[in-house]
């Protein structure tokens, strides 16, 4: 088993097994969760294929199986299923067991404007760097759309993302070279800010945030439009019996 495949499976297996837990019943959200993950994956895989072709990043053959589609290892395709599933499980588990822990709408707006004050100048002064420019453009776009159209998603997600960052930094740290001889994913530093959290390009944090937030917005839309529900609070729904 390749290291990259092992990381995917290790990230996925425990959240998957706990999806059948009787109190949370995460399995009942599978239709919306997997639909949202797949739609989001299509967007990010197209981005991934393009960036691989133009040399923004590449994959170390030492750590993947060698099976590739559109120049992406099969493990990279699985990444967009396994990692979002595990991360979203953390979000919904926190929301289920700590339903009263959330930010006010005013705090959400304050955090949004702080993030805009940080990211917009970074974007403006680094338009010549592919990863920085595209990544922060997507981040600003998705976050702005959510804040002004579905802000209640962020009341909890701003909190849960900080929790998600813990396993994210471990897994992504290994992928970028922590604890191993060579990185699994090799970044072209001329296309990013060259600022690292350990071995992780700082842009990866915004990348993860955008990918998960897009999935959450889609889950909310899918559940509201296609599943009979009654609203218990702004970000929590319950299936009708």
What does this protein structure show overall?
- There is one protein chain.
- With 241 residues, this protein is mostly helical.
- It contains seven helices and eight strands; from the N terminus they run ααβββααααβββαββ.
- The protein has helices at residues 3-18, 30-53, 74-97, 105-125, 130-149, 152-175, 203-226, and strands spanning 57-59, 68-69, 72-73, 185-187, 196-197, 200-201, 229-233, 236-239.
- The strands form four sheets. Strands 1-4 form a two-stranded antiparallel ribbon.
- Helix 1 (3-18) packs parallel to helix 3 (74-97) and helix 2 packs across helix 3 (74-97).
- The longest helix is centred in the N-terminal third of the chain and has 24 residues, at 30-53.
- The N and C termini lie far apart (44 Å).
- Residues 227-241 have low confidence and may be disordered.
Write the layout of secondary structure elements.
Blueprint: H1 3-18, H2 30-53, E1 57-59, E2 68-69, E3 72-73, H3 74-97, H4 105-125, H5 130-149, H6 152-175, E4 185-187, E5 196-197, E6 200-201, H7 203-226, E7 229-233, E8 236-239
Antiparallel strand pairs: 1-4, 2-3, 5-6, 7-8
Helix pairs in contact: 1-3, 2-3, 2-7, 3-6, 4-5, 5-7, 6-7
């Amino acid at each position: 088993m390749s290291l990259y495949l092992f990381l995917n499976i290790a990230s996925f297996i425990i959240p998957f097994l706990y999806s059948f837990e009787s109190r949370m019943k995460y399995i009942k959200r599978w239709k919306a969760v997997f639909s949202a993950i797949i739609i989001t994956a299509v967007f990010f895989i197209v981005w991934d294929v393009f960036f691989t072709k133009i040399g923004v990043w590449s994959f170390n053959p030492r750590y993947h199986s060698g099976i590739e589609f559109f120049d992406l290892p099969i493990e990279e395709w699985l990444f967009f299923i396994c990692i979002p599933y595990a991360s979203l499980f953390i979000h919904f588990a926190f929301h289920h067991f700590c339903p009263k822990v959330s930010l006010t709408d005013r705090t959400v707006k304050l955090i949004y404007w702080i993030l805009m004050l940080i990211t917009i100048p970074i974007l403006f002064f680094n338009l010549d760097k592919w990863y920085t420019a595209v990544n922060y453009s997507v981040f600003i776009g998705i976050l702005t759309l959510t804040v002004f159209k579905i802000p209640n998603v962020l009341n909890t997600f701003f909190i849960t993302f900080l929790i998600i960052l813990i396993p994210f930094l471990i897994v992504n740290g290994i992928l970028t070279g922590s604890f191993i001889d060579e990185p699994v994913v090799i970044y072209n530093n001329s296309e990013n800010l060259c600022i690292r959290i350990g071995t992780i390009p700082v842009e990866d944090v915004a990348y993860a945030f955008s990918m998960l937030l897009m999935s959450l917005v889609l889950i909310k839309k899918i559940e509201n439009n296609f599943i009979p529900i009654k609203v218990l609070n702004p970000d929590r729904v319950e299936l009708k019996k």
